[in-house]
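Incident log, structure service

09:12 report received: a user says their structure output differs between two submissions of the same chain.
09:20 pulled the input from the user's history:
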Amino acid sequence: MAVITFDFDDTLTLTQWDNNDECFKFVGPNAQIITQMIDHMDRGNEVHVVTSRMGPAMNTDGVSTPGGQPAILPFLREHLGNNTERLSGVHWCGGMKRDKLAELGSIQHFDDDPVELANLPPGCRGVHVPTLHGID
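09:34 re-ran on a clean worker, output below:
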């Protein structure tokens, strides 16, 4: 069994720039990456969500963040359904993910951020997830 990790914002979610509000707005789930997450669970891998958001109590009531991103736990329950129970953990780092990925023993991390991907711990392979807006 391998440990596989996924970023949340702009990896499991999709956003688009809103010129009127001058911020990124949530437009929906990233179905392709969510399918890959479930596929890893089906293969018996240990799957975690690792976010740079502050937490873990932050925004667990289902209210969107000021930038329009959804709350993590309600989003996962909605889009993973019964597979939510197979998720091994959700981890709020409040910054760079490197130390948490090393602690978990992640061998593969999905993320949209090239800075995160350039700073993965040894033995962890990065998978770049393209965004709708194309801004890294």
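09:41 both user submissions now match this output. Likely a transient worker issue. Closing.
09:42 reviewer note: The chain is about 25% helix and 25% strand. The helical segments are 31-42, 72-80, 98-104, 114-118.
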